[in-house]
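Internal tracking record. Fields below are filled automatically when a chain is submitted to the structure queue. Please do not edit lines marked as system-generated. If the sequence contains nonstandard residues, flag them in the REMARKS field before resubmitting.
Queue: standard
Priority: normal
Entity type: single polypeptide chain
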Amino acid sequence: MTIPQRPDVSPMFRVVVADDDFRVASLHRAVVEGVSGFEVVAEAHSGAEVLQAVRDNAPDLVLLDLYLPDIPGLEVLRRLTGSAQDTVDVIVVTAARDAGSVEEAVRRGAVYYLVKPFSTHVLIERLTTYASMKKRLETLHEADQEEVDTIYAMLRATNSRQLPKGHSPQTLGRIIEILRSAGEPLTAEDVASRTGVSRPTAHRYLTYLARIGRVRLEFRYGSGRPEHLYEWPS
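SYSTEM-GENERATED OUTPUT FOLLOWS
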């Protein structure tokens, strides 16, 4: 399936939400549209609708359920990513847990595989991480091995089993969204007030994000100790 190049008229990431359950699709749509920088251009509830929605809207990303009533989701994935001209990314969002589905999704080029059920903040994390990875690729002119490793690690860095002890993916997702939507450097106190967590908690998560290279850390010098400023890479 050849997918047309999307018109470069907006900085938004254009998303097709595909799920056979109308209620689940509506929920995922609401989550996506609540994340800064994303818009849903279509919902689809069957494989044929997914393929048509991609042809009509040229999205950047498809959230793809594997349990579709007409065409198997893995076959839809194959058609979406089957040629060098295809320009759409796919995050599989499904209850399918068998190793064969996971292996096939990876082989077919899915950028991530989310197993239902999951919390809203986990999906927010995936979207914000995806956006960060895409923006990093857009500004990349030449990559050494360290940069390549960083890019490949970005979509996997927020798995809850990889987080330091005492860190939750839900809180991390909220902090990432605040940083992405801020458009300017923030202090730990700024982040704490906008997320409702304590300043020490905000500082702990911000330190973690800076350590793994997800945010830029700058220092503002005054008469006393330098102030730490955290900024999401543009």
